[in-house]
């Protein structure tokens, strides 16, 4: 695993293989240490596009991820996909990762997390406070026509939105 302070954030790929491949290319070019996927991969074949990723990978299932068993199997050599809200530590920061935003406000107010990442809305949302909240928008670009990912700099605690 790379030791840098950059993290790639992606959500709502929805089987758009072209955009997913571009996202992986950006993550590799930027030499991110970790890629976080906030759900809605959709089909297990999406794993092929992440197989060239040069970083650690963590994801959560979204509401459109149907075959969770096969998704888990296909991503086994890439990283792990979790159910529900997943809490983890990376580079001294505490993260909460989820697909749907139902608990965002309560988790933010708890001061337990440094970073909260979510997806589902297909809209970019970056809120900086005592907790940094990041929704990278939709990578797939199917709903709003804008394909985006985020690069999180843990040293600055800032998220840059990247259009694909």
Structure keywords:
164 residues; alpha/beta; Purple Acid Phosphatase, chain A, domain 2; 6-stranded mixed β-sheet; 5-stranded mixed β-sheet; 11 strands; 18% helix; globular
What's a concise summary of this model?
The chain is of the alpha/beta class. Helices cover 18% and strands 31% of the residues. The chain has helices at residues 17-29, 47-50, 68-74, 104-109; strands spanning 6-10, 34-37, 56-60, 80-82, 86-90, 93-97, 115-117, 124-127, 132-136, 148-153, 158-163.
Could you walk me through the main structural features you see in this protein, from its secondary elements to its overall organization?
This protein is α/β, with parallel strands linked by helices and 164 residues long. It has four helices and eleven strands; from the N terminus they run E-H-E-H-E-H-E-E-E-H-E-E-E-E-E. The protein has a single domain (6-163), classed as Purple Acid Phosphatase, chain A, domain 2 (4-Layer Sandwich), CATH 3.60.21. The protein has helices spanning 17-29, 47-50, 68-74, 104-109; strands at 6-10, 34-37, 56-60, 80-82, 86-90, 93-97, 115-117, 124-127, 132-136, 148-153, 158-163. The strands form two sheets. The chain has a six-stranded mixed β-sheet with strand order 4-3-2-1-10-11, with no helix packed on it. A five-stranded mixed β-sheet has the order 5-6-7-9-8. The model has no long low-confidence stretch (mean pLDDT 95). It is globular. Strand 1, helix 1 (17-29) and strand 2 form a beta-alpha-beta unit.
């Amino acid at each position: 695993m790379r030791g840098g302070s950059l993290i790639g954030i992606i959500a709502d790929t929805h089987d758009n293989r072209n955009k997913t491949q571009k996202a992986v290319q950006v993550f590799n070019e930027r030499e991110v240490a970790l890629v976080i996927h906030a759900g809605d991969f959709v089909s297990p074949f999406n794993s092929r596009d992440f197989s060239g990723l040069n970083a650690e990978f963590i994801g959560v299932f979204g509401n459109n991820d149907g075959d969770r068993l096969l998704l888990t199997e296909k991503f086994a050599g890439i990283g792990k996909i979790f159910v529900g809200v997943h809490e983890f530590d990376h580079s001294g920061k505490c993260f909460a990762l989820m697909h749907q935003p139902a608990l965002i406000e309560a988790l933010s107010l708890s001061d337990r997390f440094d970073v909260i990442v979510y997806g589902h809305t297909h809209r970019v949302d970056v809120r900086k406070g005592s907790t940094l909240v990041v929704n990278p928008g939709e990578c797939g670009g199917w709903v709003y026509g804008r394909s985006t990912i985020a690069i999180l700099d843990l040293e600055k605690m800032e998220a840059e939105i990247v259009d694909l």
